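User: quick one, fold this
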Amino acid sequence: MRALQITGLGEALEEVDLPDLAPGPGQLLVDVKAAGICRSDVHYRSGSRPIPGLPLVPGHEVAGVVSALGDGVTGVDVGDRVALHYLSRCGRCRACIRGAEQFCVAGEMLGFNRQGGYAEAIVVDAENAVPVPDGVSLEWAAVMMCSTSTVFHALRRGRLAPGESVAVVGVGGLGASAIQVAK
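Assistant:
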């Protein structure tokens, strides 16, 4: 399987051949059709944000088509179009129970401390697959898994209500998503 890896900090991504993947129990194999470039990926490659180890396949904004199911997977089928939630969580720790999965003691993030989506395929926990409706492109769906969900969370926490105004300071990727979601 072809993939792009961070093999050295500050260096260009390297194209490599990795062993083919197979899903384990409760997991999916997804053929990657789209992977966004998040600013986090740039920080990881440059070394300005430390990562647990190298080599690393980056990419946490991922969408594709399910190509294989691990034992016990239900609710998703081979051929389904999915976007991937980038955080795997335990579901049992205090943070997960109170709905703060980003603080999960065993949490792993695609493209940071778990191999990411800059590859032909990726294995993820089945619970991380979000169905993508036919009218939504996989390219858009991939980016929505980070920037759109980030601003949606912020707007929800800010309790933005219909008819209210919101100020967006800085209109990069997140700012553009914030304007679209707020509207």
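User: anything notable?
Assistant: The beta strands are 2-5, 14-17, 27-35, 62-69, 81-84, 87-88, 108-109, 121-125, 129-131.
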